[in-house]
Amino acid sequence: MSLCFQLASELLLSTHLPLKEGAAARGIVMMMRVTSTASQIRKHPSQSGTVRKMLVASAFVAIAGLVAIGPARATNTAEQPPAAAAVPAPQAATCSRTASVWWSELLAPETERLTDFYAKVMGWNTKIVDAEDQSEPARTPDDRYTIFTDGVREVAGLMKSNHPEAAHTALGWFTYMQVPDVEAAVAKAVQAGGKLLREPTESAEGHIIAVVSDPMGNAFGLVTPANNSRC
């Protein structure tokens, strides 16, 4: 009976292999064990009858596991479709209907000292151009327009407050707000209690610029850039 007990144990263990090994793996393992046990029949003829019956049962388990290879592969293929190709995420809309700070400009009676001051304090680089045509160098000291950059992009400007190209005559920092439509923004500002200080005009670069003030008298610029990049 020891051989019968061994084969029964083999059958029980084979049918209780971890599920992750799959039916095909159980069949292969069982077939190997059946083959090993069958070779012992010749050594123990007295137990051959009982053992033969158990070998038949074991063989069925082994064959069932091997036959499961095909369906198992087909099922896995059906349940695991090929990975989809990466699709770029849709780009966010570039047009915003709300205003944002577009440019900050310092108006001062003298510009050279302030150019050095802000370069040292802010770590900005500077580029001196002509106030009227910023693609050209300054024609005279009074026409100097300083463009501050952070090494990658332009961040602010500096010019004489009494220059004809100055947006207004007040001293200090002046902020331009980018809007989708300057004329519409001007109308809203006046309706809300502000004042129009400078009619919308087109700059040499093609920007549409107007100057308004809020109900407390704080002036600021409204601009729709030439490329209108956000809309």
Task: Report helical residue fraction.
Answer: 25-40%
Cα end-to-end separation: 89 Å
Structural domain count: 2
SS field, number of helical segments? 6
Q: Give the overall pLDDT as a whole number.
A: 73
Largest sheet: 8 strands, mixed
Shape: globular
Q: Number of DSSP strands?
A: 8
Please, what is the CATH homologous superfamily of the largest domain? 2,3-Dihydroxybiphenyl 1,2-Dioxygenase, domain 1
Structural class: alpha+beta
Task: Give me the CATH fold name of the largest domain.
Answer: 2,3-Dihydroxybiphenyl 1,2-Dioxygenase, domain 1
Beta-strand portion reads 15-25%
Instruction: List the helices and strands in order.
Output: HHHHEHEEEEHEEE
What is the topology, as strand order, of the major beta sheet? Answer: 2-3-4-1-5-8-7-6
Rg, alpha carbons:
43 Å
Structure description:
The chain is of the alpha+beta class and 231 residues long. It has two domains: 2-79, no CATH class; 100-224, 2,3-Dihydroxybiphenyl 1,2-Dioxygenase, domain 1 (Roll). Helix content is 37%, strand content 24%. It is built from six helices and eight strands. The chain has helices at 2-14, 22-41, 48-67, 69-79, 112-122, 182-191, and strands at 100-108, 125-130, 144-149, 154-160, 172-178, 195-202, 208-213, 219-224. An eight-stranded mixed beta sheet has the order 2-3-4-1-5-8-7-6. A hairpin with a 4-residue loop joins strand 3 (144-149) and strand 4. Helix 2 runs antiparallel to helix 3 (48-67). It is globular and about 40 Å long. The N and C termini lie far apart (89 Å). The model is unreliable at 1-5, 11-15, 17-21, 58-78 and 81-94 (pLDDT under 50).
